[in-house]
Write a structure and sequence with these properties.
63% helix; Endonuclease III, domain 1; 196 residues
Amino acid sequence: MPSKTPFSGDPAADQLLEDDPLALLIGMLLDQQVPMEKAFHSPYDLKERLGGELDAASIASMDPAKLVEVFSARPSLHRFPGSVANRTQAMCQALADEFGGRAENVWVMAADGDDLVKRLTTLPGFGQQKAQIFTALLAKRFGIRPPGWEAAAGVYGQEGHRSVADVDGPESLAAVRVYKREAKAKAKAKADSAGD
């Protein structure tokens, strides 16, 4: 059976994303300024480096300097290991404080799509766009569809190849990359013309 989350290029890392809600949330958190495959493989690497367990409360209570070391060990888990380690720890602290230490409580307790996006944006590192993409990812890849999720996810709730939520294999990954390149070029052209 094909993976719901063929994001990392490694079947073991992809399986962890499918099986462990915290791994999926950490992968999404790390998915910026690095290739998608790197971002979504790093939760697997983090779990290995932490002795085979990913636990929000444990990560939240770690010595911050130690967690930065874990992220920075070669190969580093992100292009910016220090700031990303801090953000991961802050997110895990929020999960421990607000969601009983369980990542899935962010979505299983959501009343509707708007509530889900709102809950996600309370997590450090999750702005509106990332929250909308993750809402679409839960719906499209896992069938977690609170009422009104499509509208709450904005453009990412629509059909097409716009984000990780739409990746089901190599062809869709390539299409998402094309969309992102085109969107970045349009944004740059708009910024350039605004500066004229």
